[in-house]
């Protein structure tokens, strides 16, 4: 299970490359650099251009560059713009149809999973693209390094807490 689609993952990879490429880059060079399909790379760049995340310049010295200020955009906003918003479950957001799950009215984990969805969404809203591309996530991850989770019912009092560490192997 992954949280990000291939499209979102590649969009971040492409944007990270453009973030570090002072003069911009063309689709062919980006796809060759990462071994991505040229049409898929071009389609992602076109969508990013339509959504105001990158600009394009035609011609021999043409290519794509980040729109000024886009590095301050949150990860959640980028995902929203490319139609790849995070959803933990089919019932975790208000946008889902009421009949998305036949168990929605009786599900014992719907509310807890909605809370987890909200926490993860909060992280996506708090991380900027610049933080991702500069690998400055340590302060963000430090605030999220331990999530308190209720202890399972079969293991002690309701007030006892257990912890779950959150981190990324590259950080």
What does it look like?
The protein is built from seven helices and four strands; from the N terminus they run H-H-H-E-E-H-H-H-H-E-E. It has 171 residues and is α+β, with helices and mostly antiparallel strands. The chain folds into two domains: 6-136, Arc Repressor Mutant, subunit A (Orthogonal Bundle), CATH 1.10.10.10; 141-171, no CATH class. The strands form two sheets. Strands 1-2 form a two-stranded antiparallel sheet. The chain has a two-stranded antiparallel sheet with strand order 3-4. Helix 1 packs across helix 3. 15% of the residues are buried.
Please provide a brief summary of the model.
The chain is built from seven helices and four strands, in the order αααββααααββ.
């Amino acid at each position: 299970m992954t949280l990000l689609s291939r499209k979102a993952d590649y969009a971040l990879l492409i944007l990270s490359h453009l973030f570090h490429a002072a003069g911009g880059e063309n689709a062919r060079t980006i796809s060759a650099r990462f071994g991505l399909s040229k049409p898929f790379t071009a389609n992602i760049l076109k969508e990013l251009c339509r959504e105001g995340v990158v600009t394009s310049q035609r011609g021999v010295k043409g290519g794509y560059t980040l729109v000024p200020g886009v590095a301050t955009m949150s990860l959640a906003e980028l995902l929203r713009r490319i139609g790849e918003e995070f959803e933990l479950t089919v019932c975790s957001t208000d946008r889902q149809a009421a009949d998305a799950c036949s168990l929605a009215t009786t599900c014992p984990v719907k509310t807890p999973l909605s809370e987890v969805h909200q926490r993860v969404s909060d992280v996506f809203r708090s991380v900027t693209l610049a933080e991702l591309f500069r690998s400055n996530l340590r302060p963000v991850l430090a605030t999220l390094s331990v999530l308190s989770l209720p202890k399972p019912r079969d293991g002690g009092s309701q007030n006892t807490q257990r912890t779950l560490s959150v981190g990324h192997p590259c950080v």
